[in-house]
């Protein structure tokens, strides 16, 4: 079910680009962006879909992935509150090249292509934001190729957890603020492309290294830079 966003200022509070817009541009966004509830396990979009919206997470947890020709699931990224995605497909006017699935109940904001194009044509700060976001996403995807091909599962889990604190791609989680993440071991397995049991083993190892602590229903990051560098001592 699609509906107008209630209390848009609060809903956009974690989105970096929203704070950059001129008041008249933000008003257009508030008037034209809608939200939709996606239950856990539901698809936000599928590979091959026509791209008509730029999308962002109001609250919840999404996974961006694709199925390789040999049937392997390849996870590209995860998105939490404040994260937006799909700008590349909109700019190239090509079909969606990945699936996006809700790992838990999630509310998603949908910005129509016309609104997105209006901001591109009229807001220099919005263009600067997109340049930064595209560059950061490219860097993340390059590193994920390394994770998949070269790194062992323990390192993959460590790096994927660290990537959740990316200031542009997941602005809802900021280094230096609350370092506790409400995330299940199954969800960690999904974003790291390992089984839940293997994710549990990796978390036990990372806990012994004093990089994180495993809590009930989540984890607390103790050493973010250590997770980013793992397994370096």
TrEMBL record:
GO annotations of cellular component type: cytosol
Database matches in SUPFAM superfamilies: cAMP-binding domain-like (SSF51206), Winged helix' DNA-binding domain (SSF46785)
Entries under Gene3D superfamilies matching the protein: Jelly Rolls, Winged helix-like DNA-binding domain superfamily/Winged helix DNA-binding domain
Keywords for the protein's UniProt record, in alphabetical order: DNA-binding, Transcription, Transcription regulation
Residue ranges occupied by any Cyclic nucleotide-binding domain in the UniProt entry: 17-137
GO molecular-function terms, A-Z: DNA binding; DNA-binding transcription factor activity
InterPro entries: cNMP-bd_dom, cNMP-bd_dom_sf, Env_Response_Regulators, HTH_CRP, RmlC-like_jellyroll, WH-like_DNA-bd_sf, WH_DNA-bd_sf
Residue ranges of domain HTH crp-type in the record: 151-225
Protein name (database record): CRP-like cAMP-binding protein
